[in-house]
Design brief:
There is one protein chain. The protein is an alpha/beta fold. The protein is built from 19 helices and 15 strands. Helices cover 60% and strands 16% of the residues. Strands 2-1-4-5-6-7 form a 6-stranded antiparallel β-sheet. It has a 6-stranded mixed β-sheet with strand order 8-12-13-3-14-15. Helix 10 (296-331) runs antiparallel to helix 11 (341-352), helix 10 runs antiparallel to helix 12 and helix 15 packs across helix 16.
């Protein structure tokens, strides 16, 4: 296959009609077409356009929902185009029965509100294909260029990295089997099994047919579930984007202010809790001695009164003793005595010099009052003062927070917040439904596995029975021969792939003896690198550039092993490579990778030195110039790439 031309009209940044002549002259060594452009200038759109033109919805993946595909098409229409219509025309040549056959396909679509109207036309040698219905065009193109193979020939930096990081993936395994021609043997084996089953006895045929029907039913249900899952995933993605939009709207409509208000409310609630706690402490203190601690002068007077009240009975007893003593002494004064009435008056005056009797009426016993007053220390007074001070500061804080709340206006954010919550609920429901769908798919996969085991068991039984009949015996023998041939072919392809890979890797790698050999798992084509010392080399021990060299070498080796003549379209292959590895790619890989190599790169990747190295192999060059103001790309042919970069 060789791509002649691709025309993009109103696709992405390609506003209007833009045509790329991609013809090369491999016989003259000029097999490379370079397309130069800045990041965001339309290089990836060019690569995606080739895939989209060939495969339509399948270009986005085998399980892409129709709604997701239509949304993708709408996004691909140029935002600044005068009409909401876009198209991609791709013409290519393919050798069939020893002769070149020209094909031209056009995929066009237009917007009808939120829906999309799409058409797909296919012309062969200048005429519509008369033996095909229009509905069969897409399948016909996929048979010409299987989608699985395209990922090994039309790839970008992400695909290179995917291969470098995970070479045992299911999609890559199937693509490699198809590339190496092993899928044909698998299909022949299945066809012979079906043929054998038709020649078995009725009971065996019934069992086999039931298993086959059950298997097909489960596959159909699984496909339906996977399509449903794709639709759900698309809805989830849309819901997630709605959540993002509403979050942005919420922030722009006062959401941040509303969040600040929530913070102030939280602080106010905390201050109210503190107030309740301080109030409880103050109430307990007020029920105790706190009131007395706030009146020290009154406390001193109370202390004196209580003390006086406690000493009153003692003075009464002394006065009674003096009176009795006076009466006795004065009664004997006539006989002989030295105490006179003046003496007793002086004694009474001396006793009267003690504390005066309290004029206050006490509410309790003086000793109890004095005991409680003695508990009223300076520390307790300070604690009471601290509580009062904290209560005052708390009151001021609450007043300040309330004034701050009065300054907030979150009315504008209320609707945005309601929309955000509704979008989040929708997203949550879709995610739960998606989880249930995944569980159903897992269950159906397990059921398919069980049916597959029964199918294989019945197949073995049929083979034994079929050996009794000549036709079936021949089919069994053919299956055996195919199995042996498939094993031998796989072994041969893997041996060649190993040899080609080591040669390709060592050509491109700066460390020429880093990899001496590889092991390839025939089940999933995962690769184990072996160094010159015979020790396994872990891929994660390679540098980022070496892993990219590994991936490019594997793609190169697969192409050489398959012998298929397909063009290579490669986008930004130099992003992780140093200068020496870039020179190896330009000098050793691009000139021999295919009869047609379309290289998309930035002007920072393609230096003048690299352009000089590649110059002899360049058939034609283009430059993409994108303008941010007009949001469109302009296409310019380049006569001399090295001079353009100088």
């Amino acid at each position: 296959m060789r791509i002649r031309e691709i025309t993009l009209e109103n696709v992405g940044l390609y506003v209007g009609r833009h045509s790329f002549n991609l013809e090369t002259a491999p016989g003259e060594g000029a097999n490379v077409v370079t397309i130069l452009g800045h990041n965001g200038g339309g290089k990836t759109t060019f690569l995606d356009a080739i895939r989209l033109a060939l495969y339509g919805r399948r270009a986005l993946g085998p399980r892409t929902a129709q709604s997701t595909y239509e949304e993708h098409l709408l996004k691909k229409i140029s935002a600044t185009a005068s009409s909401r219509e876009a198209s991609i025309m791709l013409s290519f040549v393919r050798v069939e029965n020893g002769q070149e056959t020209d094909y031209s396909l056009t995929r066009a679509w237009s917007s009808r509100g939120k829906s999309v109207v799409e058409t797909f036309d296919l012309i062969r040698d200048g005429h519509p294909i008369s033996d095909l219905e229009r509905s069969e065009y897409a399948q016909y193109v996929e048979e010409l260029i299987p989608p699985g193979l395209s990922q090994l020939f039309f790839f970008d930096g992400e695909k290179i990295q995917e291969i470098a990081d995970d070479d045992g993936s299911l999609g890559l395994r199937d693509a490699i089997r198809a590339l190496l021609g092993l899928d044909i043997i698998d299909q022949l084996q299945t066809d012979l099994t079906v043929y054998t089953s038709r020649r078995a006895d009725q009971d065996s045929r019934n069992v086999f047919d039931r298993l086959l029907e059950e298997q097909e039913r489960l596959k159909s249900e699984l496909e339906t579930q996977q399509d449903h899952r794709a639709e759900l995933q698309s809805s989830c993605d849309q819901a997630a984007r709605r959540v993002e939009r509403f979050e942005a709207a919420y922030r722009s409509e006062g959401g941040r202010q509303a969040q600040s208000r929530e913070d102030v409310l939280a602080k106010l609630r905390s201050a109210e809790d503190t107030r309740e706690e301080l109030s409880a402490h103050l109430k307990r203190a007020a029920n105790d001695l706190l009131p007395l601690s706030l009146a020290p002068s009154l406390v001193d007077r109370l202390y004196q009164s209580a003390n006086d009240a406690r000493e009153g009975p003692q003075r009464d007893a002394v006065h009674g003793f003096i009176n009795a003593f006076e009466e006795n002494a004065l009664g004997r004064a006539s006989k002989k005595g030295c105490w006179s009435r003046e003496h007793f008056d002086e004694l009474r005056a001396s006793v009267a010099k003690g504390p005066a009797e309290s004029a206050n009426r006490l509410w309790a016993e003086p000793d109890w009052i004095l005991q409680r007053l003695n508990e009223l220390s300076d520390g307790r007074r300070q604690t009471a003062a601290n509580l009062a001070d904290r209560f005052d500061r708390n009151r001021e804080l609450r007043a300040s927070l309330k004034r701050e709340l009065e300054g907030f206006d979150t009315g504008q954010a209320e609707q945005a917040l309601a929309d955000l919550k509704e979008a989040e609920r929708t997203l949550g429901g879709l995610e739960r439904e998606l989880q249930i769908c995944d569980e159903r798919i897992d269950r159906q996969l397990r059921e398919l596995e069980v049916i597959g085991r029964k199918f294989r068991s019945e197949e073995i039984a049929l083979k034994r029975q079929a050996q009794e009949e000549r036709g079936s015996a021949l089919a069994v023998r053919a299956q055996g021969a195919l199995s042996e041939f498939g094993t031998a072919l796989l072994k041969d392809r893997i041996a060649r792939l190993k040899s080609e890979f080591v040669e390709c890797f060592n050509k491109l790698s700066r460390k020429k003896s880093l990899v001496a050999s590889i092991d390839v798992d025939p089940a999933d084509f995962s690769v184990t690198l072996i160094g010159s010392d015979g020790v396994t080399i872990a891929k994660n021990s390679l540098s980022a550039g070496e892993r990219q060299i590994y991936a490019i070498s594997m793609l190169w080796a697969l192409g050489k092993t398959s012998g298929r003549q397909l063009p290579i379209v490669i986008d930004t292959p130099f992003s992780r490579l140093d200068q020496s590895h870039r020179i190896s790619i330009v000098r050793d890989y691009l000139p021999t990778a295919s009869h047609q190599v379309i290289l998309l790169c930035t002007d920072t990747e393609m230096t003048p030195k690299l352009a000089d190295t590649l110059e002899a192999h360049i058939a034609r060059s283009y430059k993409l110039e994108a303008t941010a103001e007009a949001r469109q790309t302009t296409l310019f042919p380049i006569e001399d790439l090295a001079e353009e970069l100088a």
